[in-house]
Design brief:
Length: 346
């Protein structure tokens, strides 16, 4: 992400702006923003950070025009410390510590997908520095579940007794994975879901066509940010609609350019919708007409769900991505052909 791109941020979605104004009315030095992906946790946290550090904040949030706001936009604010996995720093345009960046550039190691304990120690040191401007300093942790126990415990004392006017905002999609001691020291806030109409209107404002927005919002389970991610990935809406029947046929070609993690996510959604339809409930991620007419047995679906959940633990580190795609598609085909024998695909 270039400096020009980060210097001109898009205005927040309406439901994010409303929640920002709501949270800024409340007191507290540490917030834990939680909820499923795609609702805008990171965007809400960044709006809170901008307002806390803004030179001329309003009741609605930051002014978006002052020097402080600009410094956040270009990722150079001296009173803001961002704790993120290195992979996410690269994705979102946040700087990485010089020594760590050199190790990555020199191919001595790969960028970390976890929040490293070294970064947490630097955040503790940051908390002791005198403010460079304004009245407060902020530490943003995203996604907070990417802290291991050592990293979390490194932050714990500072989180409990912050020096001076230091604020924390932690963001997570999996609050249950955080240490109880971390959760207990924060004010928790669960993000609200936008309505379908709000989500579709926002997707339209991002340049997503109406017919695509409908399909991708359903594919994302009603989560607008995830739906925008689908749209920006270049996926064809018709491919998503054809996905269930392609899996029933064992068509690996239909997903040959997918990442294993993306295929696993789609299969878990398909399993959910098949189980819902089997019990008489409405499917969530696919239209009823997209699902195969012949339904697998309950036992087959339950065992498949268990298998997919186990696969999720290693899907980001496959030994061979192509073989994993074939194995996942083959397993889906066997499940969707299973009527009474749940063991035929395990």
């Amino acid at each position: 992400m270039s400096a020009e791109e980060t210097a001109t941020p898009m205005p927040p979605a309406p439901w994010i702006a409303a929640q920002t104004a709501q949270l800024l009315k409340q007191r507290g030095h540490a917030w834990l923003l939680q909820g499923p992906s795609g609702l805008g946790q990171y965007e809400l946290a960044l709006e809170m950070v901008r307002a806390w550090l803004c030179d001329a904040p309003t009741q609605a949030g930051a002014c978006n025009t002052c020097t402080s706001c600009h410094a956040i936009d270009v990722r150079t604010h001296a009173d803001l410390c961002v704790l993120m996995p290195e992979t996410m720093c690269m994705e979102l345009g946040w700087p990485i510590e010089e020594g760590a960046l050199k190790e990555i550039d020199d191919k001595k190691r790969k960028a970390s997908k976890q929040i490293r304990v070294e970064a947490a120690r630097e955040a503790v040191v940051f908390s002791q520095f005198t403010r460079s401007r304004g009245k407060t300093k902020v530490i943003l942790v995203y996604p907070a579940e990417r802290m291991n126990n050592v990293t979390a415990n490194t932050l714990l004392k500072t989180l409990e007794e912050p020096p001076g006017e230091l604020k924390f905002v932690l963001v997570t999609e999996a609050a249950h994975m955080l240490l109880p001691t971390i959760r207990s020291r924060c004010l928790s806030y669960t993000l609200t879901w936008p309505t379908s109409e709000e989500s579709l209107a926002w997707l339209g404002s991002q340049g997503v066509k109406k017919i695509e927005a409908d399909v991708f919002l359903r594919a994302a389970g009603g989560r607008p940010a995830d739906a925008l991610g689908f749209a920006n990935s270049g996926r064809n809406p018709s491919d998503w609609q054809a996905f269930p029947k392609a899996m029933a046929k064992g068509d690996v070609g239909a997903v040959s350019n997918w990442l294993p993690a993306d295929l696993l996510d789609a299969l878990q959604k398909l399993c959910h919708d098949l189980m819902a339809s089997k019990s008489g409930a409405a499917p969530r991620f696919f239209k009823p007409a997209d699902l195969p007419t012949a339904m697998p047995s309950y036992s087959a679906l339950a065992a498949w769900h268990k298998t997919l959940s186990a696969t999720a633990r290693t899907v980001e580190h496959p030994f061979n991505a192509g073989l994993m795609l074939e194995a996942l598609v083959s397993g889906a085909q066997r499940v969707m052909a299973a009527k009474n024998n749940a063991k035929c695909y395990q």
